[in-house]
Amino acid sequence: MSKPPAVALPVAPPPSLWRLFLGFFIMGATSLGGGVIAYLRTGLVTHYRWLDDETFVELMAISQSLPGLNATNMSILAGDRLRGWPGALLGALGMCLPGASLMTAAAFAVGVGGDDPISKAFLHAIAAGAVGLVAVVGVQLGAKMLYEIADYVFVAITIVLVAFFHVSVLYALIGVGAVAIWWHRPRKTGLPDAKDAAPKDPAQRDPAS
């Protein structure tokens, strides 16, 4: 049984290049714990409203199918969608710059006190939080993008293929995506009967007939 899609807020106009860089810089600086998809979805869809959920899912699927980090791929794709190649360049720079700076400092800190029990407990807590953030994004997107039982079946098949059978994400997306496209293909409706297609009003008939 299908459910009606949720009402989404209108998408905001494309931002300026400076605003785009600043937005990705803030998301890159605050996406702690590895749950970057959660921060990107919150920033791009909920906070700035630069993208809608449907476009975000499309870009996320492309970014996960390509080599490289999902955050970098998403910043390039979203930046290009919003402001062309300058937006892609500034989006990637804004997303990567704070992380690169912080990771340099973190690598030094871990090298100094990485074996400390408090440091290990902190890293385990961050990892658990990252898993929770990814799970929240999955639930939020699923509630808006999955309309039929078949959609949930496709999600379950993808999870099983990747998690248990260790199928490459790219191959899983291609295989399951092809089946999903076939399932959601436009169905042909029956052609109207000739009697129904003929005009009932004699005045609407062709005078030549």
Task: Describe the model.
The chain is mostly helical and 209 residues long. It is built from eight helices and no strands. The longest helix has 44 residues, at 70-113. The chain starts with 16 loop residues before the first helix and ends in a 12-residue tail after the last helix. The model is unreliable at 1-6 (pLDDT under 50).
Ranges with pLDDT <50 over ≥5 residues?
1-6
Radius of gyration: 24 Å
The helix-and-strand class reads mainly alpha
Helical content class: 55-70%
Q: Compute the separation of the termini in Å.
A: 48 Å
Strand content: under 5%
Elements, N to C (H/E): HHHHHHHH
Rough shape?
A: globular
* Integer average pLDDT: 81
Q: Count the DSSP helices.
A: 8
Tally of DSSP β-strands: 0
Query: How would you characterize the largest beta sheet?
Result: none
Describe the protein's topology.
Layout: H1 17-30, H2 36-47, H3 53-65, H4 70-113, H5 117-145, H6 149-163, H7 169-183, H8 194-197
Helix pairs in contact: 1-2, 1-4, 2-5, 3-4, 6-7
Features of this protein?
209 residues; mainly alpha; 8 helices; 70% helix; globular
Question: What's a concise summary of this model?
Answer:
This protein has 209 residues and is mostly helical. The chain contains eight helices and no strands.
